[in-house]
Amino acid sequence: MRNDAEGFGKVPNDSESFGTIRKDTEGFRNVPKASERKENHTLTVREAARLFEAAGVARTERSIINWCQPNRQGICRLDCYFDPNERKYYLTPQSVETVIAEEKVRATRPHAASEPFGNVPNDAERRQKTARNGSDAEAERVKELERENLDLKIANRGKDLFIDQLKTERNGFFGQLLAANRRVGELETKLQIEGPNSDILKDAEHH
After folding, report:
1. How far is CA 146 from the centre of its chain?
2. Radius of gyration of the chain from Cα atoms?
3. Are 38 and 80 in contact (CB under 8 A)?
4. How far apart are CA 150 and CA 104, in angstroms?
């Protein structure tokens, strides 16, 4: 009877270990299953961090781990596998190279807003970013309208100058025409007064 009681006393220990297993399985739901590991899941987080640093876009190991976590859509930025025995991630070189290229492009964008590494912006951050982008777009639109207004003013000024020039040239032409008509009238009048033997006919015959 004593042996049975001793054996019976071991049951709580088994239940305790079972409780520990339950905690592991709860955490295991958030990581890929062992069957999901691929042959190219070879890079550790530390090795990936060194690759980022060598590429000129250094990122902390914590940032890389964040990229291994699924976002609200359930998508991980890095193709990774979590080894439950070693308690660490293994990444594919291809996904690391892709993210390095994306970070390089983001770093070269002028006035690009920096985003928290591996974190999905919350609603407040998205609203702030949207409002900031809206303000920037509105300011750019105002500048564009001001440039268009200035161009129209310059075009109208040039048009006015051209019209003034045409008026001046037209007035000069009309003035010359009137002067010529006046001269013809004077010659005709003189011809009528002095007759055919006038100096006008002599000058005409001479020429």
Report:
1. 22
2. 46
3. no
4. 39
- Say if 153 falls within a structural domain: yes
**Cα–Cα dist 49/60, whole Å:** 6
Tell me: the pLDDT tens digits for 89-147? 999 999 999 999 999 999 887 655 444 444 545 556 666 666 677 778 888 888 889 98
| Residues 149, 95 share a domain | no
Is the CB of residue 102 less than 8 Å from the CB of residue 108?
A: no
- Cβ atoms of residues 82 and 32 within 8 Å: yes
Residue 126 parent element (H or E): helix 123-194
Q: Which residue has the tokens 């739901």?
A: 29
Q: Which range of residues forms the domain containing residue 49?
A: 31-111
> Is 147 among the domain residues?
yes
Calculate what percentage of the chain has a pLDDT beyond 70.
66
Same domain membership, residue 93 and residue 133: no
Verify that 131 and 171 share a domain, yes or no: yes
Q: Is residue 49 part of a domain?
A: yes
